[in-house]
């Protein structure tokens, strides 16, 4: 008989490749990618074909996905200052109370015994998918994006606390004290985390010590958070915020965390969500759609009202604060595994969340394009690259490696072009090159004092299709676009170009 560990290896392999294929399929048809793995999980699990059998090993590994996803969200996507205006807190009250009250009433009317626990994941918003959604429209570094994100993260934290309280409402005071202690510990101890990591880095010369230290911190913090009844994913988010500056100086470390999270844990998490769905039938689908309509309607109403408080365009705020599909799914899964809800309740609830995760970002992109962008350009592969008006990214010879790292991190790229005083490209600095240099020397070394890699160069009249071919031929992270005098006009990154073409 095959052991649990051995069969789990096979299951994880099947899950990972199916999740990535589903992500790619959804990306190509212009849909939200993480919904693909959820649907794949429904088909692979007991919901349809019953190919993957859930066990403790699968459940544990898939649950790590949302933890690492929110850690990266806190570390790099948003300028989170930890300060909120009174209007943001008022919007929190609206965006939490309206959907929660309506959802509780509906579930109570439908005679669900644990309607309070079930209402929490259904009524809350989710910061993880919001991160991706705001990235797609370029709002992550804007005032609007941060205002929306601040609202959602506060709603998410509030509902996490409510979820803990509703597990044992008789221990209300003790629960509030325990959750408060976790937050205080993170905020106080967080001031010393970067210093501790830097000392470990300088003392131990073991390869990958920084990466191992970060992973250790995330896992240990998750352990203590869970013991004291606080969601480990939210704790990881706060840890990411506290380590933002530390990671900005180490782009190579962020690259590894990206691969670690987006290449393995995140797709397994979203596929794992679908594995818990019971047999899908018309009744479950109909109930899921009905619940989706009720929940999203209530959240959009709350978002419309609160938009005036936070000075965000009403339609944009209403749709963006309704996003779901991250920690809410995790809490729903927790409620199932702890026995607070049954498989039927989980199935129609997770399907309603999945429908929301699929539809809301599409609506948001449409609303954002209509209300925020004045002109919508139709891009053709045959047109000249200069017509796209992509912002150039480069450094001069006199800029330090610290400034190089800052620009690379801000744009989220893997290399940056170096130009001379005449704006002529000399080459590019890659993340891999920076990895080989002692971080203590970043302030002292200038961009032109290290070996530059050859950068592909094209003229401004080059076609979009030719640029795409160039990326495939050279496998370089960046292409320099110059005029007839050889002066840099702009820089093109493949990932940015693809996102630009898809979003516009």
UniProtKB/TrEMBL annotation:
Membrane topology: Multi-pass membrane protein
UniProt keyword Transferase, yes or no: no
GO biological process terms on file: proton transmembrane transport; sodium ion transport
Domain CBS: 385-445
Pfam families: CBS (PF00571), Na_H_Exchanger (PF00999)
InterPro entries for this protein: Cation/H_exchanger_TM (IPR006153), CBS_dom (IPR000644), CBS_dom_sf (IPR046342), Na+/solute_symporter_sf (IPR038770)
Source species, domain of life: Archaea
Gene3D superfamilies per UniProt: 1.20.1530.20, CBS-domain
Name of this chain's protein: Sodium:proton antiporter
Any one GO molecular-function label of the UniProt entry: antiporter activity
GO cellular component, one term: membrane
Residue ranges of the TM segments: 6-22, 29-51, 57-75, 87-109, 115-135, 147-166, 172-194, 230-247, 259-279, 285-307, 347-368
Cellular location(s): Membrane
Record keywords, A-Z: Antiport, CBS domain, Ion transport, Membrane, Sodium, Sodium transport, Transmembrane, Transmembrane helix, Transport
PANTHER family registered for this protein in UniProt: NAPA-TYPE SODIUM/HYDROGEN ANTIPORTER (PTHR43562), SODIUM ION_PROTON EXCHANGER (EUROFUNG) (PTHR43562:SF3)
